[in-house]
Specification:
This protein is α+β, with helices and mostly antiparallel strands and about 140 residues long. The chain has one domain: Aspartate Aminotransferase, domain 1, CATH 3.90.1150. About 25% of the residues lie in helices and about 30% in strands. It contains four helices and nine strands, in the order βααββββββαββα. The protein has helices at about 10-15, 20-35, 95-100, 125-140, and strands at about 1-5, 40-45, 50-60, 70-80, 85-90, 90, 95, 110, 115. The strands form two sheets. It has a seven-stranded antiparallel sheet. β8 and β9 (about 115) form a beta hairpin. The longest helix has 14 residues, at about 20-35. It comes from Agromyces bracchium. This is DUF1801 domain-containing protein.
């Protein structure tokens, strides 16, 4: 995955399909909570080998278990084939925040650092905002 120069607002405006409005709403929520941080469109081959576009919020240096650290984002938002994915790359007490707060996030699928959202009405937005705020608190060097 690499940063692009494509304008995020243009990317969002060009989205179609059932989840386009949900993507724009989640972008609004995330942008408000992470105001002042970088907001960049990333594009390339993601885990699993699929070509993806991910809106990244907040620039961080992410340590990797194998190899050196990489430039990455604190929070990412992507439209997948069957759901929206939200990646939250912040951990507390040895566990990713989304894992620690999985039971609060609503009827969504939670992975290691990802939330799978089939429709916006299944995500508890208040709990999600709390996770975003905590992610920012835990990452003081985010840009």
């Amino acid at each position: 995955m690499e940063r692009t120069d494509r304008d995020v607002d243009d990317f969002l405006a060009a989205l179609g399909g059932d989840r386009a409005d949900a993507m724009r709403e989640l972008d609004r929520v995330i942008s408000a909570e992470l105001a002042g941080l970088e907001r960049v469109l990333w594009r390339g081959v993601f885990w699993g080998g699929t070509e993806q576009s991910i809106i990244g919020y907040g620039a961080i240096t992410q340590p990797r278990p194998k190899g050196g650290a990489v430039d990455w984002f604190l929070v990412g938002l992507a439209d997948q084939a069957k759901h929206l994915s939200i990646y939250v790359n912040a951990a507390e007490e040895g566990a990713y925040l989304v894992q620690r707060h999985a039971s609060e996030l609503g009827r969504v699928k939670v992975g290691s650092a990802a939330i799978g959202v089939p429709s916006l009405d299944r995500l508890d937005l208040e709990a999600f905002v709390r996770v975003l705020r905590r992610a920012r608190e835990l990452t003081p060097d985010v840009r």
